[in-house]
Amino acid sequence: MRNHFDVIIIGAGPSGLSAAARASEQKLSYLLLEATEAAANTIRNYQRRKLVMAEPRGLPLRSPLPFAASLRESVLISWESVIADYKINIRYNSKVVAITRDTESKQPEALTVELSDGNSFTADHVILAIGVQGNLRKLEIPGGDLPQVQYQLDDPEAYQNETIVVIGGGDTGVENALALTGRNQVIVLNRAEDFSNCKESNLTQLTEARQRGALDWLLETRPQSIEANTTGEFPITLLANTPKGVERIPCHRIIARLGALPSRPLLESFGVAFPTADLAALPVLTSRYESNVPGLYIIGALAGYPLIKQGINQGYEVIEHILGNPVEAADTALLREKFASFCSDRGIEDVLDKIQRSVPLLRLLNSLQLRELILESNILQPAAGDIIFERNDYSTSFFFVIEGELEMFIDEDDIADDRFKSGEFFGEMGLLSGRRRIATVRATSQCALIETPRRVILKLINSVQTMRRTLDEVAIKRIVHACIGLSLSEDDLNDLATHAVIKQYAAGEELFHEGDEADGLYLIRRGSVTVSRMMTGREVVLFYVAAGNYVGEMSLISGEPRYATVRAAIATEAILIDIGRMQGIIARNPEVRSSLDARYLQHLQEQEKRQQSETSSDSSSGFSNQSAQSSLISFLIQQGVGEATDVLLIDESLCVRCNHCEQACADTHGGATRLDRDTGPIYANIRVPTSCRHCEHPHCMKDCPPDAIHRAPHGEVYIDDSCIGCGNCQQNCPYDVIQMAVIQDQPEQSLWQMLLGIRPKQVASTNNTKVAVKCDMCKDIADGPVCVRACPVGAALRVNPEQLLGYASNNVADEHHILGFDDA
């Protein structure tokens, strides 16, 4: 029996079979080792009659191993035919336990592969294609080991008339959920705010299933614990953290599809190096898939290439590399086009290498991840003086600096508050908070930047935890820099970033309570909070604080218990700097102390005014300015103003019901009005009509198959002409402000009609297909929203959350003046 081969391939999955078939074609001596009893074990473990997708669609297939989108059973039959036709030299039940190099042997360059049964083989080259499915992630929560919790789905038809929770928003979780519909009640839990981690075809099927009522989903939701039930219909109850708080979900079983981890201890025993200590990190590989161990190659999911077509292509390419044949990656032509104006005189691999050497954060990515990032991004080359974005813009792109230098201005004094040099990144605040840019960024020299869409970078940092932690550390330093003071030393900033704690809160959850002992300073990174106090027996809202600001400084200055209660208005993320470190910062930095003292005195003065207002209100009426203002703020927060960036309000005490606002909206938008003046909740004389809030993180943007919903630079959320009328946005909007409508054609006015002020009659569109319509804040009209300008009495107005307190105060004061409550 032969013991030495040109190539030993370990793992008979798609990439391993492809490599073996190509080695057979090229007449190499090779051996394919498979640890189980059959090839393609991962696909055999797919649910029965699962449709196996061939993604990415535009990627050409390069291999004698056939593959096209088809049922699991058909794929296996075709691959078994290849094994027979090519007489693949495969050895089953051969588990590899060691790979070593014996420098004292007759062939010192050869690698020795040892099996668990004691046999061993040598080869000039070894290809690892073992995948990661043997290391499934488990739920690390109380109850995660209950018998009703499983991490695999073999036969969906085995489950009937059950309530099943599927945890995971990736392709596997989505496909499991779809396979279970029709016979069961299915709920999908996804920790992300959308399904950006799954293929477009799966997303389309998922949204269609939800439209039919075949399943439901909960987004931005994490499992907290699982309880066993001794009585009742359901054997278990899942407790999950949702944006609205903890929800209890009784169910029969939970199927958790959380992905898998590389077999890191095994790979490290082979001598394979990893870039970081992160358990999810991928091995260090060259563009030829060779590891740091000469002659040892890694392909497929273990190398970070989870798609079947990618693995098959790599199986072909790695054999070509071993033979010394030139082979160009399938996406090279696309990258060449992307780099047409940047380093066009260099090869693609040279340019990618330059980018990784220039930007340390990108060194955490393997070759495929970097290539995918570039393909999804734009290469910008601004000249000195060019503005990248301006303060208060609503763009959410993330930027890597490859070359050049830029400066950041937080205030409007044209004094640079920070600089970004080659290798750094910026834009993380808009990325995380969804709010307006807190600064202007301008190039000071010729630059080269990578501009990456928010969706792409969020998907990336969710899969590369080391990248997320690095981004978090820099983001913490920058928000501390912006919020607390620009005078902090680099050592102080590094110390705060290292020890700060990122905390998450559901809507309505308290960050701290009035009377609590101070635990530190809270920097609001995402979301918003309200600040309230108990006054005359009732809780009164004092402030609204949006992302990019901080709370909790008063107790730090006074040394007394918490002055007020701070509560999340919507799902919120805050950075907690503990009291000990914060007091040290204050002691060492007079500027910071002065800034916090000024805010403390301002709060005391405002509180004194409130108390005077409370005292001077007409006690006989029992009506308090402060209480009324607080109630109005609370009402507006409940109606979504807390996550809004712009909301339309109507003062019913002024409104004359002329309906000019609705008519102007319809005339401007093809005959379909974007607001309903008469509907929507009302408090006192203030109505919140049915009109878009233009949320920080728009619910309507989630799961839009044609990606038709966008945010304009000034914050307007709008739907473009690519809408296909699927209705996902209408279902996802919690405020019922999106409708499906047929747009009518608006003929142009004739000269006589313009002179006489006559509107031409609208005619039915020749296309009767309904599309989604919503308020776009008249983004293309220079003078702003027509609904406000058309109101003859000033009853319609728009406010953003930052204006909320002032608006409520003015509204209450005006109302009291009308009622005579403030006449002394």
TrEMBL record:
One of its GO terms (biological process) is DNA repair. The keyword rRNA processing does not apply. Coiled coil: none annotated. Residues 604-625 are annotated as: Disordered. Keywords: 4Fe-4S, Electron transport, Iron, Iron-sulfur, Metal-binding, Transport. Residues 361-478, 484-603 form the Cyclic nucleotide-binding domain. Residues 613-625 have a biased composition (Low complexity). InterPro entries: 4Fe4S_Fe-S-bd, 4Fe4S_Fe_S_CS, cNMP-bd_dom, cNMP-bd_dom_sf, FAD/NAD-bd_sf, MethylDNA_cys_MeTrfase_AS, RmlC-like_jellyroll, RnfB_subfamily. Residues 646-678, 715-743 form the 4Fe-4S ferredoxin-type domain. One of its GO terms (molecular function) is metal ion binding. This is Cyclic nucleotide-binding protein. It comes from Methylotenera mobilis (strain JLW8 / ATCC BAA-1282 / DSM 17540).
